[in-house]
Amino acid sequence: MTAAEGVVAVGVDVGATLAKLAIRAADGSLRCEFLPADAHAALAARVVESAPESVGLSGCGAAAFERVLELPAERFIEFEAWGAGSRALLAEQGIDPGEPYVLVSVGTGTSILRIAQGRVERLGGTALGGGTVLGLGVALTGCESHAELCDLARQGERGNVDLLVSHIYSPGEIALPGDVTAASFGNLARWLSRGQAPASGDPSHREDLAASVMGLVGENVALICCGLAGSAQTRRIVYAGATLVDNPVLLAILMGVSASMQCEPIALDRGGYGGAVGALVLAAGDESI
Predict the structure, then answer these.
(1) DSSP secondary structure string for all residues of 199-223
(2) Are the CB atoms for 278 and 11 separated by under 8 Å?
(3) Could you say which DSSP state residue 273 is in?
(4) How far apart (Å, rounded) are the C-alpha atoms in residues 275 and 58?
(5) Is residue 31 part of a domain?
(6) Residue 102 domain-assigned (yes or no)
(7) From CA 197, how far away is CA 223, in angstroms rounded?
(8) Is the domain of 219 the same as that of 205?
(9) Element (H, E) at 254
(10) Which residues, other chains included, contact 173 with Cβ-Cβ below 8 Å and sequence gap of 6+?
């Protein structure tokens, strides 16, 4: 998409790890891209070459990026940008954004917001997030990228590393399904404490370790979100954030745990770009995308 095609607005969300770019053309089409958060020169060049009518910025790195951007721009608080972006993306998805919902942005860490009647309220957050997934995943598996880690997790078996209810209770002995996690990485710890290798599966397998990292983060994030949503008397939970992009294992865990807690989970389409889309619509003064 070039200036000749008529770019109306650009939104940039500069996070701790990634910069998210949203570009809206005059024909209403929306293009979204990821760049490294510290690639300010390349990001600025990308925005300038688009020659937009308006530019909105958000995220923890927005102030630093604004200093190198040679265009007028408006800077918005991250939470307000996420609120506006999630409303626009939900509407594009055919979901009524007017009903109150809890928005979960799984970025480097995880922010949890309540969106209702145009107001954004921060309910809380957790340090568990994409930084945990990638940092712990790299340390345990030696993988070199988010994409590689997600691919490994798809092939893994968590029960070879995690301690499940079925590992410690006979069927029917306790009112919990056998596949519920009793302790993340607990099966590995249990066997290692005996100086033995597991009877089935090898916990040194990178795939199993990657899957267990996703489980550790996903289950705990979902439980925290469901607890905060319940306290806020809100059932609908919208999951978004760059960590969920091309990460079906983590997303499935978030959705499954939330549903089991009687919440209504929704995966936000293009949710990795919620903050950038929000900065775009706020700068343009129009929440349609």
Answers:
(1) SSS-TT-HHHHHHHHHHHHHHHHHH
(2) yes
(3) G
(4) 7
(5) yes
(6) no
(7) 31
(8) yes
(9) helix 248-260
(10) none
The reply to whether 54 and 146 lie within a common domain is no
Q: Which residues pair with 122 in a beta bridge?
A: 113
78 is catalytic: yes
The three-class DSSP label of residue 173 is coil
Indicate which residue of 66, 78, 207, 219 is catalytic: 78
Q: Is residue 19 part of a domain?
A: yes
State the pairing for strand pair 101-106/236-240.
Answer: parallel
Report the CATH number at residue 38.
3.30.420.40
Task: Report the predicted TM-score, pTM, of the whole model to 2 decimal places.
Answer: 0.92
Spatial separation of the C-alpha atoms in residues 48 and 71, rounded to whole Å: 7
The answer to whether position 99 is within a domain reads: no
Taking residues 36-49, report their average pLDDT.
Answer: 95
89 and 181 share one domain? no
**Number of domains forming the structure of the chain:** 2
62: amino acid identity, one letter? A
Strands 7-14, 18-25: parallel, antiparallel or unpaired by DSSP?
antiparallel
What are the tens digits of pLDDT across the range 57-92? Answer: 999 999 999 999 989 999 999 999 999 999 999 999
Q: How do beta strands 264-267 and 236-240 pair? A: parallel
Amino acid at 36: P
